[in-house]
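// run 5 | inverse folding | seed 20
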């Protein structure tokens, strides 16, 4: 705040010079040019029309007026320093609770490692997890949702995590019993397993839409790992993420030229000017972990 004293920084400079006994030492401590400090202190003396500092040998010491000013100001300056130090310390501390909702497989595949790492590194951090497949909208500034569906979250920040590519898979046992589909039309006659209730499917060949069709699954399970295990046991065919099927060499990909529409996963949270440091740090760690999925 400007006044006859200039601003509060000028008074802080005065106190620093008197404490250090040297303009050069004070400038080094405050990381300011000596010329800047000298100019501002001279301007302060001119405004007050009083000499505050004087040379004594190689040192710069307070005059009687400067000493009185220093003694009056120091308590206030120390309190200001303490308050800002506490503010910075609190800002630097990683603590608090994050409420997170995500599908089971997100936790198993990559988010679980991030959370376990946070629990080990930051004793003040807590998590409240909901592992499900149902859509949930962030309710507080600390809530996070990991999801494929952001259709109802236009007012949120939605950051892309990875793209999920799906092919059609079956087991050798299933194909021996039900035959191998040769065309898209053959798919209508097979026993489908699905991970959600989105049964209207768009098939792509390369970048072009090849077919839109509707599947009627015999079983819906909100866990992609369970679906993979059921396909492996010969209970049906399913759209499975190619990044996971590499772990199951016995599965056979059907109509390999065709893919389901690419699904993009997001991490979603409320928009605010100043995000909590814990949230920002956690989001960045999840994005880093998700990038490994994209590379694979």
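// decoded
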């Amino acid at each position: 705040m400007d006044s006859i004293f200039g601003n509060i920084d000028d008074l802080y400079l005065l106190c620093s010079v008197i404490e250090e006994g040297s303009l050069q030492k004070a400038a080094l401590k405050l990381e300011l040019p000596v010329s800047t400090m000298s100019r501002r202190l001279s301007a302060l003396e001119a405004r007050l029309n009083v000499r505050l500092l004087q040379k004594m040998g190689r040192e710069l010491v307070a005059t009687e007026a400067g000493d009185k000013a220093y003694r009056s100001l120091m308590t206030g300056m120390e309190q200001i320093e303490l308050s800002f130090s506490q503010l910075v310390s609190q800002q630097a501390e990683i603590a608090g609770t994050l409420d997170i909702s995500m599908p089971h497989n997100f936790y198993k595949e990559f988010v679980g490692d991030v959370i376990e790492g946070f629990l080990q590194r930051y004793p003040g951090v807590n998590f409240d997890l909901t592992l499900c497949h149902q859509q949930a909208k962030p309710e507080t500034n600390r809530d996070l949702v990991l999801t494929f569906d952001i259709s109802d979250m236009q007012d949120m920040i939605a950051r892309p995590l990875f793209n999920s590519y799906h092919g059609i898979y079956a087991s050798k046992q299933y194909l021996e019993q039900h035959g191998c589909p040769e065309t898209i039309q053959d798919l209508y006659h097979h026993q489908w397993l699905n991970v959600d209730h989105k049964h209207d499917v768009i098939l792509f060949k390369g970048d072009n839409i090849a077919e839109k069709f509707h599947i009627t699954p015999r079983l819906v399970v909100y866990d992609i790992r369970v679906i993979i295990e059921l396909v492996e046991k010969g209970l049906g065919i399913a759209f499975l993420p190619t990044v996971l099927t590499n772990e199951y060499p016995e599965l056979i990909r059907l109509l390999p030229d065709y893919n389901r529409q690419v699904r993009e996963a997001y991490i979603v949270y409320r928009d605010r000017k100043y995000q909590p440091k814990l949230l920002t740090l956690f989001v960045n760690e999840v994005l880093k972990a998700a990038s490994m999925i994209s590379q694979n």
